[in-house]
Amino acid sequence: MAIYQKIIVGIAVWFGFVQIAAAQNGGDSTARASKWSFHFQATVIGQQHSGFRSMYRGDNSLADSVEPTAQSLTATIFVGRRLWKGAAFYFNPEVSGGKGLSSASGVAGALNGETYRVGAVQPQVFIARAYLQQHFRLGKAEEDIADDVNQVADKVPSSRITVSIGKFAMEDFYDNNAYGKDPRTQFFNWSVWANGAWDYPANTRGYTEGVVVELIKPKYAIRISTVAVPRIANYHLMEYNGHAHAETFEFQHQLQFGQRSGTIRFLVSSAWNRAPSYKQGLAAIASQDTFLLHVIRGASENTTYGGHKYGLGLNIDQQLSDDLGFFCRVGWNDGKYVTWAFTEIDRTLSGGLALKGTKWKRRNDVAGIAGVVNGVSPDHRDFLAAGGYGFILGDGRLNYGHEGILETYYNAQLNRFLQLTFDYQYVNHPGYNKDRGPVHVFGLRGHIMF
Question: Among positive and negative, which fits the CA dihedral 376, 381, 385, 389?
Answer without folding.
Answer: negative
